[in-house]
Amino acid sequence: MDSNKELLLSKAELILKEAEKQGASQSQATINLTNLNLTRLANSIIDQNVAEHHVKVKALLYFGKKKGSVNFEIFEDTDIKNAVSQAASLARISRENEDFKSLPNPKKYPSLNLGSLVCEATYNTTPELRAEYAKLAIDTAHDVDSRVAAVAGYVQNTTSERVVMNSLGVAGYEMRTSSDIELTILARDGAEETAGWSGDARRDVRDLKVEEIARVAAEKSAEGFGMKDLPPGEFEVILEPAATAGLLFYTSMLGFGARRHQEFMSYLRDRIGEEVFSEKLTMYDNALDERLVGASLFDDEGVPHQKVELVDKGVVKNLVYDTLTAGKDGVESTGNHAQWWGPAEPIARHIIAEEGNSSIDDMISETKKGVLVTHFHYMNPVDPTQGVLTALTRDGTWYIEEGEVKYPLRTLRFTDAIPRFFKDIDMIGKHSKFLTRPPYGMIPGMKLPSFRFSGSKKE
Predict the structure, then answer these.
(1) Strands 369-383, 233-239: parallel, antiparallel or unpaired by DSSP?
(2) Where are the beta strands (DSSP E) in 4-147?
(3) Which of 184, 204, 219 is the last residue of a domain?
(4) Terminal CA-CA length for the chain
(5) At which of 164, 199, 219 does a domain end?
(6) Is residue 33 part of a domain?
(7) Do residues 164 and 172 touch, judged by C-beta distance below 8 A?
(8) 42 near 150, Cβ under 8 Å?
(9) Is residue 47 within 8 Å of 155, Cβ to Cβ?
(10) Same domain, 311 and 389
(11) From CA 34, how far away is CA 44, in angstroms rounded?
(12) The domain that contains 198 carries what CATH number?
């Protein structure tokens, strides 16, 4: 298994040397090298096979408290030197950031079993193996029900290498492999069309649960005929793990990042130590957990990851920090610097919520009038300061009455506030047998006593 460690380190060193020549007081180089190989399915055939090999580089320079940065996808020395010069020019004309104190100093990285990050079989995955998995998924889905009309989705394997180096001595390198499969399966009966979805991710491509997710998605699509509308209102809701994962990611991103607290954008502002959520909810961020497909050693500043307790039995415990926000609050970075969208900020991207003992069937049997949700789509914040979210249900939603599944529902929109719908939790299930890649970690299904559906996708 080939590694590009020495090449990446040498390119990062070049960036730092060029920054020094430009007169920068501090500098940082970040390089991500990704090999992605993907087989795409559509209409129950393989319609695309893609191999991507690309590099993303960031040069960050400070002149005192003035900052300039350039992101680029070139790897020739001359181009790198020109990019550093551009970053220096931007820094010289930028405003001073009075909150900036320093880039991070080096710290010892935690020890992780190499096997939790890299799998040689995944690294060496062939197009033939992905095609074999695709055919298995297609055949399995069509065997479930004669009304299954089309299988769509992808099978992919990825090898990524990352270097973060700065002028203070930080020098982090890691290599990771992952594989994942995601399927959306359509079924048709006359004029009605339904959809079912499922997915799985693994460090080792040989462990992908191809048949199982194909069967789950096909069964959801076959069971979706006869859809009815549901009027807006508050209902009990049963969230499958994928649905819970979407809600908990936004719960974390909008509430627990230090930048959002400092800029008065968090719905948890001034609520640290308060019991905001149900006592049944305990969750933490831990990129070092070797069970995760996306286990990782350090953040995008090269600061070591650590376990951060977010909620303990409903009580808000801690924020996540990067170097800049930690300096403002006089604390240490928790190793959560990340670029998601907008400005870089501290984000918890490896969330683990403690599981319970209930199954989805248990939750259904305890529901008087409620909705069962497979997962959500187009989730977005409406009012971050109040934790209000909106999204659409997708690929399988059912109405539950008196402990029984009555009929499938057409797409619904929910609009509700995180502190309200997670204030009470009736039941918590086990972690899903299917895994995901970051930003999700290990999340169980849940039953909530009240969830606000505001209308259909057209409203």
Answers:
(1) parallel
(2) 26-42, 45-63, 66-72
(3) 219
(4) 52
(5) 219
(6) no
(7) yes
(8) yes
(9) no
(10) yes
(11) 28
(12) 3.30.2290.10
Give yes or no: residues 162 and 204 share one domain: yes
Q: Write out the two tokens for 405.
A: 């599944």
- Do 141 and 243 have their domain in common? no
Neighbours of 117 (CB within 10 A): 18
Q: Which domain holds residue 181?
A: 119-219
Residue whose token pair is 């999204």: 391
> How big is the chain by its Cα radius of gyration, in Å?
24
- Residue 12 CB partners (closer than 8 Å, separation 6+): 29, 30, 31, 163, 164, 165, 171
Residue 397 has which token pair? Answer: 């939603």
Tell me the C-alpha distance between 190 and 198, whole Å: 24
Inter-CA distances, 265 with 132, 225, 254, 272, 385, Å: 48, 42, 8, 15, 5
Contact 397, 372 (CB under 8 A): yes
What separation in angstroms does the CA of 426 have from each of 175, 212, 314, 356? 41, 28, 13, 11
Amino acid identity at 342? G
Strand partners of residue 40: 48, 154
Please indicate, yes or no, whether residues 179 and 254 belong to a single structural domain of this protein: no
Within 330-387, strands assigned E span 337-338, 345-346, 351-353, 369-383
Both structure tokens of 140: 């399995």
Q: What's the distance, CA 302 to chain centroid?
A: 20
Are the C-beta atoms of 164 and 60 separated by less than 8 Å? Answer: no
Enumerate residue ranges in the chain where pLDDT < 50: 459
Question: Hey, what amino acid is at 111?
Answer: S
Instruction: Measure the CA–CA gap between 23 and 12, rounded to whole angstroms.
Output: 17
- Do the beta carbons of residue 120 and residue 2 sit within 8 Å? no
196, 124: one domain: yes
* Rounded Cα distance, 43 and 151, in Å: 6
pTM exceeds 0.90, yes or no: yes
In this structure, the answer to whether residues 236 and 206 fall within a common structural domain is no
Report yes or no on 390 lying in a domain: yes
Total domains in the fold of the chain = 2
Q: Is residue 9 part of a domain?
A: no
Q: Say if residues 201 and 437 touch (Cβ distance below 8 Å).
A: yes
Percent pLDDT > 70 in the chain is 99
SS3 323: helix
User: Mean pLDDT across the chain, nearest whole number?
Assistant: 95
| CA 177 – CA 158 distance, rounded (Å) | 6
pLDDT in tens, 177-218: 999 999 999 999 999 999 999 999 999 999 999 999 999 999
Whether residue 82 contacts residue 76, with contact meaning beta carbons closer than 8 Å, is answered with no
The pLDDT of residue 457: 61
